[in-house]
């Protein structure tokens, strides 16, 4: 096996591996949309390879895998510099895929640490890949978040069960009525066991200009829960025109356990179905047990995102080690 720098001449070979992985996942997850992802993946891979932070594994003259990262990101899961390899930004083939993954991770992390002082690494993989999953875990990565999908044709259209509640879409400045709930969501995400900090400024935007659609559950005039959707998602799959993506949901604590969240979800699903939408996607932190349990009842998980943060003191350690060693000879 030979590890080389990823270049644009490798794009078409990498594309074949990426398409193969998607087709394999579709065979396992029937809820995934049946779409041609060739153009999306070619554009994604080409862009990543041009950024110069990618490596390729060659075996007997053929590509056995690749791993490419988006350019370094400041403040990535903390105060350090990080890099991320999105779904489609990596693929592994052959009978020895675990070893190929491990070798590419080793080379990719070394390149980013040396050239850009990156110490926080994340990558997204298909959920039903136990070989690569084990390889990543043994290389010190932990699962942080996931993407899931629902085929709306399999969701039974029903009336909401909350006779004393009203469900509706908020428009224009009416969206501001969920501002306190958004604050509650940010506060919840910052607590144990999640410990996820959020830039609160993005939740104080001009609601009338916000692109996401916001649906609310009301008891009288009080907004007790909301769910928002948008066109954009976290993976190339979620960008298909036939899919909308949940980008926020929260129910006041005193109304939990009363099926409010389910009825709000049912209302949104019914709206989407009437508008001809075929799929609904959602991503959530796997560190958030409440969200993971709720979405897992109705959505099928198709990705996991893995993260590893290394000790920042390793930067410059080799020079320090050599200096100290020589001084004691």
Number of helices: 8
Please give the CATH architecture of the largest domain. 3-Layer(aba) Sandwich
Radius of gyration, CA atoms, in whole angstroms: 22 Å
Tell me the distance between the termini.
38 Å
* CATH class group of the largest domain: Alpha Beta
The helical percent reads 25-40%
Strands of the biggest beta sheet: in what spatial order? 4-5-7-14-8-13-12-11-10-9
Polypeptide structure, described:
With 329 residues, the chain is of the alpha+beta class. The protein folds into 2 domains: 2-140 and 307-321, Gcn5-related N-acetyltransferase (GNAT) (Aminopeptidase), CATH 3.40.630.30; 151-298, Gcn5-related N-acetyltransferase (GNAT) (Aminopeptidase, 3-Layer(aba) Sandwich). Helix content is 33%, strand content 28%. The chain has 8 helices and 14 strands. It has helices at residues 11-28, 38-50, 97-116, 130-138, 179-189, 260-274, 289-298, 317-327; strands at 2-5, 54-59, 62-68, 73-74, 81-85, 90-92, 120-126, 142-151, 166-170, 213-219, 222-230, 243-251, 279-285, 300-309. A 10-stranded mixed sheet has the order 4-5-7-14-8-13-12-11-10-9, sandwiched between helices. Helix 1 packs across helix 2 (38-50). The longest helix is centred in the N-terminal third of the chain and has 20 residues, at 97-116. It is globular. The model has no long low-confidence stretch (mean pLDDT 91).
Sum up the structure in keywords.
329 residues, Aminopeptidase
């Amino acid at each position: 096996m030979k590890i080389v720098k990823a270049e644009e001449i490798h794009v078409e070979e990498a594309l074949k591996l990426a398409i193969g992985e998607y087709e394999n996942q579709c065979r396992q997850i029937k809820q995934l949309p049946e779409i041609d992802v060739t153009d999306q993946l070619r554009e994604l891979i080409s862009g990543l390879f041009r950024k110069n932070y990618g490596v390729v594994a060659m075996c007997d003259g053929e590509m056995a895998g690749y791993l490419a990262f988006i350019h370094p990101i400041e403040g990535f899961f903390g105060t350090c510099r990080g890099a991320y390899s999105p779904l489609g930004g990596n693929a592994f083939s052959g009978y020895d895929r675990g070893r190929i993954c491990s070798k590419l991770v080793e080379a990719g992390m070394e390149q980013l640490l040396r050239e850009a002082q990156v110490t926080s690494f994340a990558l997204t993989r298909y959920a039903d890949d136990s070989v690569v999953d084990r390889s990543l875990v043994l290389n010190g990565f932990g699962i942080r978040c996931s993407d899931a999908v629902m085929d709306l044709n399999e969701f039974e259209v029903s009336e909401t069960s909350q006779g004393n509640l009203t469900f509706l879409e908020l428009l224009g400045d009416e969206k501001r009525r969920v501002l306190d709930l958004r604050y509650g969501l940010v506060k919840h995400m910052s607590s144990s066991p999640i410990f996820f900090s959020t830039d609160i400024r993005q939740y104080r935007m001009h609601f009338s200009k916000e692109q996401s659609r916001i649906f609310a559950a009301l008891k009288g005039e009080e907004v007790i829960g909301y769910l928002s959707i948008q066109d954009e998602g976290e993976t190339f799959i979620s960008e298909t025109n036939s899919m909308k993506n949940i980008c926020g949901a929260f129910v006041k604590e005193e109304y939990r356990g009363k099926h409010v969240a389910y009825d709000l979800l049912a209302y949104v699903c019914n709206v989407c179905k009437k508008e001809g939408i075929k799929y609904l996607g959602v991503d959530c932190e796997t560190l958030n047990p409440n969200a993971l349990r709720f979405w897992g009842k109705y959505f099928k998980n198709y990705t996991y995102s893995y993260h590893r943060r290394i000790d920042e003191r390793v930067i410059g350690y080799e020079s320090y080690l050599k200096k100290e060693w020589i001084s004691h000879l």
